[in-house]
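ZP: hey, is the L6N33NVT complex queued? I don't see it on the tracker
AM: it wasn't, my bad. submitting now with these inputs:
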Amino acid sequence: MAEGRGPSRRALLGGAGVVVGAAALAGGGFAAGRATASPVQLRQYDFHGEHQSGIVTPAQDRMHFAAFDVTTGSRDELIALLRSWTQGAAVLMTGTELGDGAAGGSPLAPPDDTGDATGLPASGLTITFGFGPSLFSKDGEDRFGIADRQPSQLADLPHFAGDTLEDRLTGGDLCIQACADDPQVAMHAIRNLSRLAFGVASVRWAQLGFGRTSSTTRDQTTPRNLMGFKDGTRNLRAEDTDNVARWLWADAADGQEWMAGGTYLVARKLRILAEVWDRASLSEQEATVGRAKGSGAPLSGGNEFTDPDYGRPGADGTPLIPTDSHIALAHPEANGGAMMLRRGYNYTDGADDLGRLDAGLFFLAYVRDPETQYIPMQNAISSKDAMTVEYVRAVGSAMFAVPPGIAAGATLGGDDGAYVGQGLFG
Ligand SMILES: C=CC1=C(C)c2cc3[nH]c(cc4nc(cc5[nH]c(cc1n2)c(C)c5CCC(=O)O)C(CCC(=O)O)=C4C)c(C)c3C=C
Ligand SMILES: [Fe+2]
């Protein structure tokens, strides 16, 4: 997935899925966009690649995520949607308007593009597609003739201690993760891809994220989560190629050939009980996480990137990093060496009925095998981690198979072009 610099959006993808290349900014005054575009906003990623974009891509600062219910029973319509999403995503990632654009089409028809990102640069937009367990079979029904191709790794997550999941925030047949360095660009992508799904799939739930809570490459600074702590210090990163190959990308030998080069996504909406957290003392907060709030250093000493020493005792003989702290329970050595690529976002939905902050962490993690890399860790965290037990409530949950990318040079769209998840239907 190559990075480049691109133009701001012009029209490219026809409503019927045909590349037309017509500029849609005629008429002037419509291409204002942001007054100035930063180098980050000019960043542009290639849609093509061995793996889908938006996974090891340097985590952007904004996210719009949507889960969809497929409303058709037709396999052909589902495939047509995946074709049109593929082609649409490739166009959107170049910072280009869809079809004849927002103002270039017939005055008698709705515009091909909603226009809310017209004039904005690509802003590092990545679009990542996933398939939920219910796409393969639902209530025992093989909906689209693909039940025998469901990977064993893709299953509904079990109930974890303390989960207070809401059905309206849980599950989904399909998902799209749109990440960008401009929130309007991420939102525009989800909005327009949802439009392309009209009559075939509808949004089940969606989430906006406004600040990354991870670093996925070495050159990124560590951001902070809504507990005020540095988050993402120790993460699987693009440069750790051996670990990425071992813990991230699925292989044909894992069971389903069509998933080779893909991965699995766990999405959890984790509300933080901010008012309770904000009343905890600094030392209690640090003991809960296992790291210093200011520097992010482990409580065993050193700086942010010093390896934590979980056995190192303090003056009273107990470990400086409490055994029920978050990092003591989440670090790989406590979990059979298992690693994951975290790619979550801070979120807020405003306030609840009692005036409390309705906010938290939209946890996204990519793993090769959820059964061994995610579920045991979540079980430990849900039952023993002081942070999760006292200050976090899971309100939404979903899992998706994320198919591989589409090889460089492959033609997209039309009846013969490549599309995301094609191997599943071949
Ligand atoms: C099941 C996996 C995890 C969930 C759920 C989770 C929730 C969660 N985490 C924080 C804040 C922090 N997490 C940190 C580290 C960390 N967390 C997980 C896994 C889950 N977190 C892992 C694997 C790690 C890395 C452990 C290690 O290798 O040491 C940290 C410390 C900084 C860092 O290394 O990133 C913080 C802070 C919140 C607020 C949260 C749910 C709301
Ligand atoms: Fe964590």
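AM: back. Residues 8-22+40-425 form one domain.
ZP: great, adding it to the tracker
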